């Protein structure tokens, strides 16, 4: 049994004392206090405590791409990845499936739906479909031959029997001239994010009015902001209903752009993501990725023509860079990576119960990144 004092909780910035046993949170005392029965005492000295991080856009890790999961090895691969993510402070994630043949999407979703992680593993909260309803003009690293029109019939075909598993879908709203698909998805409990899109300011605004509430990797793979046509970027920055997924890694966004986003949207409406692909957690080098050759160096992933193809940095790495480049305090950054993504999915955020109290991260002043209790 351990007691932890002078810990600031990201939920409200208040100072608390915690009683923890075997990784389970037993009691919380606002403002301080102690327990006579507790053994080891830890003074966090104003350091932060937070729920584990949540990555809403993670395409793969440890050499595995989620869109390519196989029936033979998929469950074991997910178990290894869940253990790895937990070890670096990530409590939950949305496996993100990119534009591949519909049959492969269904196979991957079937495997993910069957996955039940062991204790001490990151949890899967559902699936993020990044495609295939994307504009070819801003396809990025997606393969054009697998992109589909945006119709309710095509959406039904892509979701198949897995609509309850899909929590988030990235799409280009201008592909739906009848403007029917976004309300249809939202009615089924699927959050809609605009991305890989040439949407104008007006088209993006109508998509937000119809229920889209997110933008995927803002400024990347979408119509650039222009003073005569602000596009989806301008619409998202002005709309208080909208949260923006961003990749503040110093590669996808310039540090000044990160500070601009923070100034315009604030920490509650910006959600850092990794956008990591299969090389996350393995060595730099050249790899085959969906039939393409990619180069991985210092966290950056590029195609042969120099286009970015995701990242090889974890959300924990991105969090550290966000603090440096956004001129943020640790509590605000932790809230962006732990609280904001949960709220985007409609999840409540509070002190973990005794059954899941090991879902806590601690960030004392002397540590360069957040750690779990065993590493304090």
UniProtKB/TrEMBL annotation:
Gene3D superfamilies: Metal-dependent hydrolases, Urease, subunit C, domain 1. Keywords: Carbohydrate metabolism, Hydrolase, Metal-binding. The keyword Metal-binding applies. Pfam families: Amidohydro_1. GO terms for molecular function: metal ion binding; N-acetylglucosamine-6-phosphate deacetylase activity. One of its GO terms (biological process) is N-acetylglucosamine catabolic process. Its EC number is 3.5.1.25. Residues 48-350 form the Amidohydrolase-related domain. This is N-acetylglucosamine-6-phosphate deacetylase. The active site is at 275 (proton donor/acceptor). Zn(2+) binds at residues 130, 196, 217. Its cofactor is a divalent metal cation. Substrate binds at residues 141, 220-221, 228, 252, 308-310. Binds 1 divalent metal cation per subunit. Belongs to the metallo-dependent hydrolases superfamily. NagA family. It comes from Gloeobacter kilaueensis (strain ATCC BAA-2537 / CCAP 1431/1 / ULC 316 / JS1). The lineage of its organism: Bacteria, Bacillati, Cyanobacteriota, Cyanophyceae, Gloeobacterales. The keyword Heme does not apply. InterPro entries: Amidohydro-rel, GlcNAc_6-P_deAcase, Metal-dep_hydrolase_composite, Metal_Hydrolase. It comes from the Bacteria.
